Amino acid sequence: MTAKEYFRQAYRLNQRINSDIAEVDELRAMLSNITSSALDEKVKRSRNGGAPFVSAIERIDKLERKIDSEVDLFVNLKEEMRTVIGSVDNPNEQMVLRYRYIHNYTWDKIGIELNADSRTIRRWHGKALGHVTLPKNPVKI
User: What is the pLDDT at residue 54?
Assistant: First the structure.
């Protein structure tokens, strides 16, 4: 695994967490739209015999547990990334890595924060990646 691949994991994991949260929100919205007539007893029963919202509640619970574990992994990864970035000697290179991979800033925003042009930021980034030493057993998603 390269340093760039290692650092990009946090962005992808954050996207996955946000996607799961959006799915939970959609399921909750569906639950709030279930009318009382759906809960009335009917002559013909479904195969499972349960209320129609039970499966949605179970799915929400399962997704929330998955989100909790992903958030734990995300926190561990970010903590490890801070340690890895802290081991880079050059403070400019450290800040480029921190802004890019911890805060997910764009190149332009990093340039504004560090008062440097885009070429300089990208040069510092390339050097910083070369100076990164990954842990022996890095967090992997």
Answer: 78
HSE of 28, CA atoms in CB hemisphere, 13 A? 9
* DSSP character string of 89-129: S-HHHHHHHIIIIIS---HHHHHHHHT--HHHHHHHHHHHH
Query: What global pTM score does this model have?
Result: 0.77
* Cα–Cα distances in angstroms (integers) from residue 4 to residues 7, 63, 73, 82, 112, in the given order: 5, 29, 18, 14, 22
28, two tokens: 């909750």
> What pLDDT score does 88 carry?
95
- Residue among 78, 95, 63, 103 nearest 9 (CA): 78
- Which stretches of the chain drop beneath a pLDDT of 50? none
